[in-house]
Amino acid sequence: MCRWLAYSGEAIHPALLILEPRHSLVAQSLNSPLGAETVNGDGFGVGWYPSTDALMPEPALFHSIEPAWHDENLRELTQAIDSPLFFSHVRAAAGPPIQQTNCHPFRHGRWMFMHNGVIAHAPRLRRDLMMALDPELFPLVHGTTDSEVVFYLAITYGLQEDPVAGLGRALRHVEEIAEAHGVRDVVQGTFAVSDGETIWAFRYSSMHKSRTLYYSVDMPTLQEMYPEVDRLRLFGARARVVVSEPLTDLPGAFVEVPESTVVTIDAGGGYREAPFLRDDAA
């Protein structure tokens, strides 16, 4: 449905990952071998937390309905800013219209969220899902995507206190509403959440056949594996990325995230995996 990446580590220009690798996110917007759709040209977005010396309490966002490969502003922006943690997303619309309010990532306070996948029969379920939102959050849903509704539903269920439990409760509620409507296998996707310090990335679907998700091995190991690759010296020891599909063909550089799993990347570059909503997994 879409492609995305999330980076954490030393501050870098986002262009180093969004534009420059052989299989960069912009390259994947034109040709995505592992995606459900080969082309992801229905808009894009970048969300970033400024470097620590910047006085900005919330992440900044840039959204466009242009295809990522066609937008000169994306190139200018990602080469000019630097950030220790950023999200980027290219969209293949599954029904909701192509408009800026439907572009990922979404933001609430210091929190960012993005999704690759779909909530099956979302228009049929939307009224019940929206009615489950905290009344104070209801007017903050500006677009028409199922992804934005899931984000605010997760906040309703406590994402800001416990991101793993909050998103888990939200997706279970989506499944309960879908079951009441006779909809099976409702949740499909990978999800990313951040508070500016930590990234939580989830691979989950109701049918336990989720969209692809990968993480990079730690940078010191990668630099030791490939000392001849000059490009790797542009990254610090804490650099980590979670991606819909690998950005490079280097063997061993990326590892697939297991099905029904949440991965956590902290500010120090540490990586942890844990089961996510596996209690009834096939």
TrEMBL record:
Keywords: Glutamine amidotransferase, Transferase. The keyword Transferase applies. It holds the Pfam family GATase_4. GO terms for molecular function: transferase activity. PROSITE patterns: GATASE_TYPE_2. Residues 2-268 form the Glutamine amidotransferase type-2 domain. InterPro entries: EgtC-like (IPR026869), Gamma-glu_amide_hydrolase (IPR052373), GATase_2_dom (IPR017932), Ntn_hydrolases_N (IPR029055). It comes from Agromyces agglutinans. This is Class II glutamine amidotransferase.
